[in-house]
Amino acid sequence: MIDHIGIAISDLARSRAFYARALAPLGIVELMEVGPELTESSGTAIGYGANGKPFFWIGDNERVGQGTHVAFAVEDRAMVDAFHAAALSAGGTDHGAPGLRPHYHPDYYAAFVFDPDGINVEAVCHKPG
Questions:
Q1: Region 6-19: what's the mean pLDDT?
Q2: Per the CB 3.0–4.6 Å rule, which of 46, 55, 71, 108 could disulfide with 101?
Q3: Burial, 129: exposed, middle or buried (Cβ in 10 Å; 0-12, 13-18, 19+)?
Q4: Checking DSSP bridges between strand 53-59 and strand 109-114, what pairing results, if any?
Q5: Model confidence over 24-62: pLDDT tens digits?
Q6: Cα(98)–Cα(100) distance, integer angstroms
Q7: In whole angstroms, what separates CA 4 from the centre of its chain?
Q8: What share of the chain has pLDDT > 90, as a percent?
Q9: What is the mean pLDDT of the chain?
Q10: Residue 20, SS3 per DSSP
Q11: Torsions phi, psi for 33 (to 5 deg)
Q12: How many angstroms separate the CA atoms of 29 and 87, rounded?
């Protein structure tokens, strides 16, 4: 299952205003802002979602066209570890070893890799250890 998707934008303020208005009729609102000191690629990321869960992210941390990010939700932390190992052995590049990312939430356990084309792919488990 897709957990969340992120895209790079060129103007944070402009895109923030656009998505706030465009997504409101869908019941999707801004839920979280993560500053440059906490993102994997530096820059600011803004998460939109519903029911307390951000699932659509915009960020000024990469160039437009290069900031594509896909995260897959998995059942347990062992699957995150297995994803990371398999992706590296398949030719991916490490972009964040398996581990907790408590700045997202206390049980956010994830690993990040770049695929051969530079797409940031993540596996994430939201369940307690």
A1: 90
A2: 108
A3: exposed
A4: unpaired
A5: 888 899 999 988 777 666 789 999 999 999 999 998 877
A6: 7
A7: 6
A8: 59
A9: 90
A10: helix
A11: -125, 130
A12: 33
The one-letter code for the residue type at 72 is F
Domains belonging to the chain, first-starting first, are 1-67 (3.10.180.10), 73-129 (3.10.180.10)
In the DSSP assignment, the letter for residue 25 is G
Query: Length of the chain in residues, anyone?
Result: 129
H helix intervals, 1-129:
12-23, 77-89
Residue with tokens 């895109």: 15
Three-state DSSP state, 6: strand
Closest CA to 101 of 47, 25, 51, 27: 47
Would you say the C-alpha torsion 15, 125, 80, 42 has a positive or negative sign? positive
Question: Residue 49: CB partners within 8 Å, gap ≥ 6?
Answer: 4, 28, 29, 31, 55, 56
Is 3 in a helix, a strand, or coil?
strand
Rounded distance between C-alpha atoms, residue 13 and residue 64, angstroms = 15
pLDDT of 18 strictly over 80: yes
Q: State both tokens at 39.
A: 């993102």
